[in-house]
Write a structure and sequence with these properties.
The complex is a heterodimer.
Chain A: H1 9-29, H2 37-56, H3 60-77, H4 85-106, H5 113-129, E1 138-140, H6 152-159, E2 163-170, H7 181-189, E3 193-199, E4 217-223, H8 228-235, E5 242-248, E6 270-272, H9 274-290, H10 307-332, H11 339-364, E7 365-367, H12 369-372, H13 375-386, E8 390-395, E9 400-402, H14 403-424, H15 428-433, E10 440-449, E11 452-459, H16 466-475, H17 487-492, H18 515-524, E12 528-534, E13 538-546, E14 551-559, E15 562-567, E16 571-578, E17 582-585, E18 589-594, E19 597-603, H19 604-607, E20 620-628, E21 631-637, E22 639-647, E23 661-666, E24 672-676, H20 678-686
Helix pairs in contact in A: 1-2, 1-4, 2-3, 3-4, 3-5, 4-5, 4-9, 5-9, 10-11, 13-14, 14-18
Chain B: H1 3-20, E1 23-31, E2 34-39, E3 43-48, E4 62-68, E5 71-77, H2 78-81, E6 94-102, E7 105-113, E8 115-123, E9 142-148, E10 151-156, H3 158-162, H4 164-171
Parallel strand pairs in B: 2-10, 5-7
Antiparallel strand pairs in B: 1-2, 1-8, 3-6, 4-5, 6-7, 9-10
Amino acid sequence: MSIDMSQFHQVFFEECFEGLEAMESGLLSLDIGDIDSEVINTIFRAAHSIKGGSGTFGFTVVAEYTHIMETLLDEMRDGRRPVTKQAVDVLLGSVDCLREMLTSIQNEEDVNMVSAAKHQAALEIELNGSAGNAPEAVKIDKVAPIAAPLKPEEITEIDEEQGWKIAFCPYLNLLKTGNDPVRLFRELNGLGEFTSNVNIQDIPPFDELDPEECNISWELKLVTEAKEAAIREIFSWVEDDCALEITPLSKPKKVKKPKITPTAPVVEVVTATPDVVESVAKKAAVVVESDPSKNTPKASSSIRVDTDKIDTLINMVGEVVITQSMLGLIGENFTMDKVGQLKRGLAQLERHTRDLQQSVMNIRMLPISFVFSRFPRLVHDISTQLHKKITLKLVGENTEVDKAVVELINDPLVHLIRNSLDHGIEMPAERIAAGKPEMGTIELKAYHRGGHIVIEIVDDGRGMDKAKLLAKAIEKGLVDEATIMSDKQILELIFMPGFSTAEKLTDISGRGVGMDVVRRNIQSLGGNIDIISELGKGSTIAIHLPLTLAILDGQSVAVGDETYIVPLVSIIESINITEKMLNKVAGKGETFKLRSEYLPIIRMREIFNVKSGAATKSNEGVIVVVEGQGALCGFLVDELLGQQQVVIKSLEANYRRVEGVSGATILGDGSVALILDVPGLVRLSVR
Amino acid sequence: MSPENEIRAVKEVAQTNSETSITIQYLSFVLGKEEYGVDILRVQEIRSWEPVSRVPNVPPYEKGVVNLRGAIVPIIDLRERFSLSKVEYTPLTVVVVLQTGSGNHTRIMGVVVDSVSDVISIDKSEIQGAPDFGTKVSNEFINGLVSVNERMVMLLDVDKLLTLESLEQSEN
């Protein structure tokens, strides 16, 4: 039977990456010293499924690597090993390494053996070192490279050994798990010439003997051309229930810990202190960290949808079909007395269509935690690297946002958080001197506001020095010395290309590329970015993004003969007014007193040069009070027409960007109406 | 001979023909007394004039946008674009919907013309380069001139005509 396994690869990789994320977040939430066994179990399960899956798909590299992680985790789970920060760091590094391996395999590239080997070394040291061996000079059986079993050509070398010595030492419970050693031996026998030596010295006296326990161990000799992997496969059912050692016949070798499966025969024995390897592993971790940024594009994009959501959808499509056939029946031989029926049918159709639309949109919505969940790791790594003490608070992770936005917001956020870590938060000593708590805080918040999702990055670091920013900008010739700039304008300077105030470049940030790219990315999503910063107190960066890029609730308004759509979410209220209620300011601008506040008025007729329609003396009209970029403002229109959901159509697809207009839509009569871009109009009116 | 073979044979004949003389078909239309032609492969459809939705704060020759089966399509008045005298739109006024760009980045756009006159086949060798009219008349959209039955037809470069960036630049 041959099944094309490659059709399942995509699913496998997705599951693996999910598993890795689960491991990562589990590891980060592990409280050193206070072990939550449930968390370790979660991590262990994730590792185990990755191991199982990769074994099934023949990615032995991954399977064997994960096996070592699993061993370590298993000991932690059983409480045989303390959870130390060092161990967690090594495991985190391994998660990265696995991710790198899987990405390489997914993109059908060669796995980077060097970094894999380093991680594996670190893992093994962790495994051996704290298990009782003298930590200062651990002999690692460093196979050259350690990844030897992972490399196909190394395996062929081993194959020349012509046979294997297998030390098979079952645990007491082997028989209870339903495994029969005889079956294993029979299979081994099928591979080649097979001899066995039974070791019966552990068998207790007869009166203490429990027939359900396995007290025997074997030393097996197999003369064969079969590969080590083939033998391991035979033992794959029992590998958790026994100590297994497989060594080539020609070079028998002793392994200190029975629990550890030696990854390959010894080719070279290296003596190293754990610290050395540790630092090597750390370096490797840094390399890995920088790698994802130049990720090769993912093969295809898919989305995981709750089956419930799909069931609802199917249900609704059914309803729509029923309504449609009902309307068809009415239409076939229509008489005037069926008007009532027709109206009811149409109302039903409208409701169903709306529901359908809503649930389709729902499918595309993902919680922002898809993005946020990566940041605890980032903060953990970078703060360690910078020797800073920083906690990350996540708020509003369940805020839902369109998938397209989720995908595109990640890179800008990574950049901004790195900036906060590197430039924002001070060194612990500096913080204490400034009278702040030693532990810096970065808060990552997401919430909905007015049809937008707002993502805020708040740090309590040193803030931005406006004088320094300005001096730097003048020095770089980005601004003229004579220009008088508001505080806000000065802060905006950091978005200029080539601007950096960092005294020294680090690999984290400071090369002066970035903030302009960040802003461009966010603007291309239809959002904007604001900065508030106070020297010595910290900075807040707020990103406003549209929730979805496809549909909005709109209020249609009439201006002359023309119809425009104002996004309902930005409307605060609408008021009927007469000319007398407007106040002139300096002869030109106009304001309207809304309760206690004076609002600037934008006459739509003027700003859009509307000449058509009855030339009203504009002594009557409606003020639509809108919120644009934090400030209230009134649009003076002729009339309110109605509210409806509109499908946003791009003007740019065939035409171009028009100031003050965010898109277009098609009205019920087939004509086109423009959708107003409220913040854009406010900007337009200022000019 | 199977139908496929027949088709192939016909195609081959067409190809050998085109090697000796490359014939291009143009759709010709009239603006006032002038006759223009566009590559017929660029013409998506011909529609009658219908009211457009005006777009604010754009040059006057960009009349507005219409809904063309769900797509928002801009309409450009060629008379105004070429600074000819304005005429009232009548039910006979025609909008030629043209396609520009290639690959997955194509735009469609409608141009208002007085009337559509003919489909003309022109041998490539008959096309003359557009003479330099000096600064008086911009010839940037004109690919060449050709004479058909003693009438002069100006062949338009659709891509240049419909590149809005160029519209924006000429506006500045």
